[in-house]
Amino acid sequence: MSELGGGARGLAAPAAAGARDASFALRFGWLAVMGAVFFSSYGFANWLAARRAVVPTFAFGWEHAIPFVPWTIVPYWSIDLLYALSFFFWTRRDDLLDQVKRLLTVQLISVACFIAWPLRFGFERPDAGGVAGALFTLLMGFDKPFNQAPSLHIGLLVVLWAVYAKHLRGTLARAALHLWFAAIGVSVLTTYQHHVIDVPTGAAVGCLALFLFPLRDAAGRLPGADAARSMAPSAASRALARRYALGAGAVALVALACIAHAAGWALAAGWGALALACVGWIYWRGVPGAFQKDADGRFPPFMLWLLAPTIAGAFVNSRAWTFRRPAPARLGERVSIGRTPTTRELRRHGFTGVVDLTAEMPRWAAADAACAYATAPQLDLVAPTARQLQQAVAALERLHGEGRDVLVCCALGYGRSVLCAAAWVA
């Protein structure tokens, strides 16, 4: 992970929304509150599981090959310090409250899952001596072999990784950061605290928290704020949201049906259901900026993971519909419309400018100094607002005015790009 951010809520908030300072007392107070919430809710779920006569375990057979590495209890424990310090990065109150909401979201979803379907760790942990042994003894003083999936440790790790990556600068410092956080991720397995199934499910919860409660930029703006509008979503957007919700529900039922007999397929189906639900939420809000596609056409790493099934589906759909007519259509001097291009396609046709209107997919073409890139994200199958159309036309006018051969692209090259080009001609 690197600089992460993004989200689906309140994207029209002005930059001044977080102008009020977060005092040290407020930051410390929220740390105390969240610490109490953490230990009380986590302990309650452990207590409920311990009262059950039988608590099942869920592990793949090959997990017996995962070694027990005692010293990795050190990075495992370090997340507690990182958790506490994360409250003191924020100088604006809104930023601090966003962090509280992210952590609370991970906590509540994870604990709800622990209570709904309790699991226990199924392997015998070998004895450890020295400092590692003392740390394991301290851990077992409040932890039990329950509270497995989704891993709360991993969910919090994803959120904290995003926060620390946003604030830390310097190549060496960031490299050390990523190595240490990766070690924390591995440690949940090598300390025999979690089974493999707990890791992707925990990561999904962390990504969801970042999606719902985004990281702001230095000016306090939320991702996509410039493109977001306060107007109500259109009827078409809401109708598509309902379709995505139905699809998510159907795929979730498939995931539930597969759990007992095909755990891998259950994970894949659950991933797809979550991605569909997130896209449905974006359409319900009617905010293309909620995909968090940046000015360079890239998605934050956590969004790439969270929406990988729908991103892949959108790309395959793009290629399937345009299989027989992949070439862009020339409209006039130095202006063409077409599907979202790859690097090879851009070079084949010699374009020196791209106006990308897709919101649901990242940029597929590699960055090229000879080819200027502009993005004006719009929701697929939804008529753009006047402001979105103005942004797209302005981007086309700017690149065309620079003497570039411009491709205006969307998923297929049939809808959004046609509207933009027509508005530009008019």
UniProtKB/TrEMBL annotation:
Under InterPro entries, the record lists:
Prot-tyrosine_phosphatase-like (IPR029021)
Q: Which keywords annotate this record?
A: Membrane, Transmembrane, Transmembrane helix
What CDD domains does the record point to? PAP2_Aur1_like
Q: Which positions, given as ranges, span the membrane?
A: 28-48, 68-90, 102-119, 146-164, 171-189, 195-213, 250-283, 303-321
The name this protein goes by in its record:
Serine/threonine protein phosphatase
> Which species?
Burkholderia ubonensis subsp. mesacidophila
